[in-house]
């Protein structure tokens, strides 16, 4: 009965605010989850360093604005480029030498890459939290009736949808996308057909890392605290979002991100006494999905023609 009382007492403005927050958070999860699902769709492995790539992207953006005094829109471009190169470097050093090794070896390497990035960030940037630089144009509030919503909350879902559309175009209508689909279908046959496997996999890591960089920048504006460990929980949740939607399926990752983000916010809205357990919601949903539909809501194939 308590939940019905909470809903009855909630005004339309408060509900609209929660929905906006849920869409915003879900969009961030979706954008970052795409990186997990792309790598899995081609290599059938989980890039556990992906959350830490998000963390490094936040630091790149922080130093671009706070130290080098670059305009924020220039910083976005620089951050995307540096993060894409970081993704390619991780693939080249941590994964490519183990291309034909057992899956357990690759998994251990992925975890090692994650620990390396966390400790490297702790050594280079210190463990003291930093505040992401303020960007007034993105942080100002817009009034919709009695509801106050930050501009960034509108920007995040728009950027996520645009990113999804661009990525689907690349996957379905370009030579690189055709090569990705071929590699995801049959690794060895693609090699025999003359496809450069190494270049395709590097491109996949770079695209996933670039999208993570965009998500990281918006994450920093929305949630401005930056620490070397900040990528751990978002990384886990975005992996869960990819599993919910069907890991290996791009649109499924986006769907899973929206479900997870909206669910977290609504848990806090309807059950404020459980707000301290909001992180547990993601793991509960993961258990339920794995129990009833292990392949996720939209299957498991990445490179299906849209």
Give an overview of the whole structure.
It is a single chain. By secondary structure, this protein is mainly α. It has a single domain (2-292), classed as ABC transporter involved in vitamin B12 uptake, BtuC (Orthogonal Bundle), CATH 1.10.3470. Helix content is 73%, strand content 4%. It starts with a helix and ends in a 14-residue tail after the last helix. Mean pLDDT is 86; it is low at 301-306.
Question: SSE string, helix = H, strand = E?
Answer: HHHHHEHEEHHHHEHHH
Shape by Cα distribution? globular
Q: Beta fraction of the residues?
A: under 5%
| Low-pLDDT residue intervals, each spanning 5 or more residues | 301-306
Instruction: Please outline the major beta sheet.
Output: 2 strands, antiparallel
Number of strands: 4
| Order of strands across the main sheet | 1-4
User: What is the rounded distance between the termini?
Assistant: 44 Å
Q: What is the count of distinct domains? A: 1
Give average pLDDT, whole number: 86
User: Architecture, CATH level 2?
Assistant: Orthogonal Bundle
Total helical elements: 13
Radius of gyration: 20 Å
The CATH topology is what?
ABC transporter involved in vitamin B12 uptake, BtuC
CATH class: Mainly Alpha
Helicity, in percent? over 70%
């Amino acid at each position: 009965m308590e939940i019905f009382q909470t809903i009855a007492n909630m005004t339309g403005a408060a509900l609209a605010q929660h929905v906006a927050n849920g869409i915003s958070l879900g969009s961030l999860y979706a954008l970052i989850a795409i990186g997990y699902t792309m790598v899995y769709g081609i290599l059938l492995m989980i890039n556990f360093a992906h959350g830490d790539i998000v963390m490094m992207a936040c630091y790149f953006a922080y130093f671009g604005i706070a130290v080098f005094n670059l305009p924020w829109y220039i910083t976005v471009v620089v951050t995307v480029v540096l993060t894409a190169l970081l993704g390619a470097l991780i693939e080249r050093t941590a994964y490519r030498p183990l291309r034909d090794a057992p899956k357990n070896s690759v998994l251990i390497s992925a975890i090692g890459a994650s620990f390396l990035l966390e400790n490297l960030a702790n050594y280079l940037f210190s463990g003291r939290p930093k505040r992401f630089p303020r960007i007034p144009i993105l942080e100002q509030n817009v009034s919709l009736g009695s509801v106050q919503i930050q501009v960034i909350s509108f920007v995040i879902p728009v950027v996520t949808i645009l990113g999804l559309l661009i990525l689907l175009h690349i996957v379905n209508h370009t030579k690189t996308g055709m090569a990705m689909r071929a590699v995801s279908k049959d690794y060895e046959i693609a090699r025999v057909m003359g496809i450069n496997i190494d270049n395709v996999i590097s491109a996949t890591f770079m695209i996933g890392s670039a999208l993570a960089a965009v998500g990281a920048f918006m994450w920093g504006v929305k949630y401005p605290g930056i620490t070397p460990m900040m990528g751990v929980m978002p990384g886990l949740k975005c992996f869960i979002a990819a599993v919910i939607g069907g890991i290996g399926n791009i649109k499924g990752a986006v769907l899973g991100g929206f479900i997870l983000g909206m669910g977290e916010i609504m848990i806090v809205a309807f059950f404020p006494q459980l707000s301290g357990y909001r992180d547990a919601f993601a793991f509960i949903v993961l258990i339920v999905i794995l129990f009833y539909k292990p392949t996720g809501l939209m299957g498991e194939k990445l490179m299906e023609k849209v």
